[in-house]
Every structure is written in structure tokens, then in C-alpha cells.
Write a structure and sequence with these properties.
The chain has 255 residues and is of the alpha/beta class. It contains eleven helices and eleven strands.
Length: 255
């Protein structure tokens, strides 16, 4: 993994997550999307995306948000109204909107996405990843190495095998500006981040690649351990809403 990494924005160490479905923010638990329910959080009244986004931005002290548009991911039907409202409100969006073609990536950038997520789950294959990079630029493109219980959450044969490292190498060669490593089975269950070991392997093979992970964060200690292992930014949702990570803990990160 020796390809040069395009220079893109520097992400904060703590990156709040919104999962949206049907115009609401939902609790994402273990990737069991059929059971996702509207968010109930002491941080905000209701589950409207704009209100939740503002509450999270105030809590963490910056405007960066990772947004997974589940309407787009599952049904190829982006919630354009919500995405445009969030971008217009000043959110710096890292946006997973079910990329299946380069035209969608261009649309997301046009409405204000800072970074677009090309996810293993929805990508047709490595050729389309290269086309997305060519269309919007590697510096705007993150590849999401999607797993479920440790197995690739996508058609392995298209990527050259079942080894996540093989897929990571293919994505880096396409010219991506960073990589997300995420096991959806760990999301929202507070059992620790299951991708920590894989992140260390990716970091060892590519020293300069911006690396993002999350899913299962229990406390600020998990975040600090991941950062110490070479992860650049940690995705967090549940721990913010439950209060496991609050202002005092965020202050430990120095931002």
C-alpha cells in the first residue's frame, strides 16, 4: 500500500454520527435496520435531523458530522431535503448516501458535502470507486470498508477475495483520500470497537492514510486508545446521547 494519499480536510478526533431514515434520526443498533427506531436523547427534543445536528455540534464544539442516509443506502432514494438543510445550516458533512454511481457523488458535492463516502456495501466494484475518485477528486472521497461480524459486507469476488486487507489495498490504489473501517454489528451495542485490530493492520501498511473507525465506543478511553493506535477520527453516536461521553470527556481530546 504505497500509493500517495490526496490531501483533504483534517477531520476532528471525535466525529458525531447521524443515521437518518424517513426524515428522522434513528438509533442504529448492530446493523439491524428493520428494528431501528426514532432517536430519543436528553440532548435534544425529538428526532428531527437539524435539531439533533445542532445539539451534537454544540456538544462537541465543531461542525463536522458523519451522516448515513439509510433511505439512500437501502432504497437508492436520498433524502435530499434533509441533506440540503444540514449543509445550508453549516454542517461539514461526511456523507454516506449509498453511492452506486459517480453522478450521485457529484450531486452530493454540489449540495455541500465536504466528503463523500463510497461504501463497500453499495459500490458496484473497484472500477466505480476509481470513477468516483476521478469525478469528485480523491481528496473528497472516503472509502468505507464495511464489515458485518468480521466478514466483508459486499461482494468479495469483485474485490479479489474475502481478506479485508486485499480490499483496502485495492481502494488505496484507486486514489482515495481516506478510509473508514466499520463493522456494523458493533454499532450501538457498547461492547468496544471490533475493528481496532484491523485498523492497526491498515495503519501499519499505509502510514499516511487518514483512517476512521467506530461502532461500539463505550467511553472516551476507547476513543483515546484508537487515536493512540493511529486512527485519525472516531465515529461516535450512542455514547454521546447516553452521556458516557460528555463535555468533560470531550475536553480530554483537546478540541
Amino acid at each position: 500500500m504505497t500509493s500517495a494519499v490526496p490531501a483533504g480536510p483534517v477531520l476532528p478526533p471525535l466525529l458525531p454520527v447521524l443515521d437518518t431514515l424517513g426524515g428522522q434520526v434513528v438509533w442504529a443498533v448492530a446493523g439491524q435496520r428493520q428494528s431501528y427506531r426514532p432517536l430519543e436523547s436528553p440532548l435534544v427534543k425529538g428526532s428531527r435531523p437539524l435539531a439533533v445536528a445542532r445539539a451534537l455540534r454544540e456538544l462537541v464544539g465543531h461542525d463536522w458530522l458523519y451522516l448515513a442516509d439509510l433511505d439512500a443506502i437501502q432504497q437508492d432514494a436520498p433524502d435530499w431535503q434533509t441533506l440540503e438543510r444540514l449543509a445550508a445550516d453549516g454542517c461539514q458533512l461526511v456523507l454516506d448516501a449509498g453511492l452506486r454511481h459517480a453522478g450521485r457523488a457529484r450531486q452530493l458535492v454540489a449540495i455541500g458535502a465536504r466528503l463523500v463516502v463510497a461504501a463497500l456495501e453499495t459500490l458496484p466494484g473497484p472500477a466505480m470507486l476509481s470513477e468516483i475518485v476521478e469525478t469528485v477528486g480523491g481528496e473528497r472521497t472516503l472509502f468505507s470498508l464495511d464489515l458485518r461480524n468480521g466478514a466483508l459486507a459486499g461482494p468479495a469476488e469483485i474485490w479479489g477475495g474475502t481478506d479485508p486487507q486485499v480490499v483496502a489495498r485495492s481502494a488505496i490504489q484507486a486514489g482515495i483520500g481516506g478510509m473508514i473501517v466499520l463493522d456494523v454489528a458493533g454499532v450501538g451495542v457498547a461492547n468496544g470497537v471490533p475493528t481496532a485490530a484491523l485498523c492497526r493492520q491498515v495503519r501499519a501498511a499505509s502510514a499516511r492514510l487518514p483512517l476512521i473507525t467506530g461502532g461500539g465506543v463505550r467511553s472516551i478511553d476507547d476513543v483515546e486508545n484508537l487515536l493512540a493506535d493511529g486512527v485519525n477520527s472516531v465515529l461516535v453516536a450512542s455514547a454521546l446521547h447516553t452521556g458516557q461521553i460528555g463535555p468533560a470527556e470531550i475536553a480530554r481530546l483537546g478540541r
